[in-house]
Amino acid sequence: MQTVQGSTMTTPQSAARAQHHASSYYAATTNRTLDLKHLQGELEADVCIIGGGFSGLNTAIELAERGLSVVLLEAHLIGWGASGRNGGQLIRGVGHDVEQFQPVLGNKGVDGLKRMGFEAVDIVRERIERYAIDCDLTWGYCDLATKQRHVEGFEADYADLQRLGYPHPLRLLPRDAMGEVIGSDRYVGGLIDMGSGHLHPLNLALGEAAAALSLGVQLYERSAVERIDYGQQVRVHTAQGCVSARQLVLAGNAYLGSLNKSLAGKVLPAGSYIIATEPLPEDVRQELLPQNMAVCDQRVALDYFRLSADGRLLFGGACHYSGRDPKDIAAYMQPKMLEVFPRLRNTRIDYQWGGMIGIGANRLPQIGRLPDQPNVYYAQAYAGHGLNATHLAGRLLGEAISGQLEGRFDLFSRVPHPTFPGGQRLRSPLLALGMLWHRLKDQF
To answer: Which InterPro entries match (predicted)?
Structure first.
């Protein structure tokens, strides 16, 4: 077994100290740079956005396209958090088990959430096309079953997608056909979706930042917000500047911290980790993932993986709720990869990295506005579906802030989101215990 050569492990904490992108495959293969300054002095705008990830960037684009003036503040670099570190899997849907919200939203509302999950991917597709963003977009995705009950779930999903008029090709795969998608005997079935796929997330974020700049959005990096003065005119303070705006969007997600304790208590920062192999020969790539699809299994402690544009296997998973990162990400993740692909035992791991995703108690993205501050909006807690759901959040926030509050935005804001128990110190250990129980159940 070979491990990391020629790269250093970057945990979320060390990246925060270094004020640069995590030393990931994505950071090593960016195709553009942004020459952005930090905020100095005072500015006025229609809307101020805190957070330079997908939520903030896409809200900025939606608002600028509607003619509003926007200032966006990022504490580190554009795409520094989960937006620039994630698995790059662009998968339909928002939330997990949205049927649970039927008592609140009704059948029509639940179907509305599902159809917006289709739209979320279309927004990404349209944004890439409109602004000519080079981010290795590739279509094709397959859910993987490790148990018969997963197969039964796929059959139910297939029927429901057909009922809803899903416009892209779908195909259920029996066990004896899994070799068409993946070179592993670990899986007993699958569901192919050609309306989902994969891409280079950091290049997408940088491309969307360039699009926002072209629309007149003012972007500032290394401009951490220190204080917010709420009121009819919100004032957002950084170390060297201040933004006054009629409306504010909080888009920090897992990195919101103490800026708003009420929102922070509703999202749990959880660590997720990825390794990237050396470039693989063509025959190996064809054996592992012959159709170059992104794939993901259905376990609680799931694995997700895909090929990069230059032929590496990017293998991710191992979501940590304990608040503690593995000391050696590659040593932790490589055995998981070898369980799926034993033939990669002597393959070098070139990159390893981690980051924080935001998870809510009910696994539905939290999109709404503060009850006591009606001019303050937020979007967070995507629970692993952030690549597409952030883009949907940006559209819904754009609609709401520009005066289209009823309907789509209201569908999300009507769902209550409980605060995690235990406060900042205890909520991660308590959830870790709960997830351990679910993982034990997952074995049967």
So the answer is: FAD-dep_OxRdtase, FAD/NAD-bd_sf
Task: Write down the H helix ranges in 73-200.
Answer: 102-130, 148-163
Mean pLDDT of 344-350: 98
Could you read off the pLDDT of 24-54 as tens digits, one per residue?
999 999 999 998 999 999 999 999 999 999 9
CB 34 within 8 Å of CB 220: no
Tens digits of per-residue pLDDT, 61-104? 999 999 999 999 999 999 999 999 999 999 999 988 899 999 99
Q: Identify the bridge partners of residue 367 per DSSP, sorted by sequence position.
A: 379
pLDDT given for residue 407 in this prediction: 76
The residues, any chain, with a CB within 8 Å of residue 59's CB and separated by 6 or more, are 49, 249, 251, 379, 393, 394, 397, 398
- CA 329 to CA 275: how far, in whole Å? 8
Of the candidates 280, 248, 348, the residue with the CA atom closest to the CA atom of residue 5: 348
Query: 232 exposed, middle or buried (CB, 10 Å; 0-12, 13-18, 19+)?
Result: exposed
**Cα 365 to Cα 261: distance, rounded to the nearest angstrom:** 18
Cβ–Cβ contacts within 10 Å for residue 154, how many? 21
CA distance 155 to 150: 9
CATH class of 12-86+202-268+362-425: alpha beta
Q: How far apart are CA 111 and CA 113, in angstroms?
A: 5
d(Cα 316, Cα 333) in Å, to the nearest integer? Answer: 8
Higher per-residue confidence, 209 vs 11: 209
For the entire predicted model, the pTM comes to 0.92
Q: What is the DSSP string of 379-417?
A: EE--TT-HHHHHHHHHHHHHHHHTT--TTHHHHHHTS--
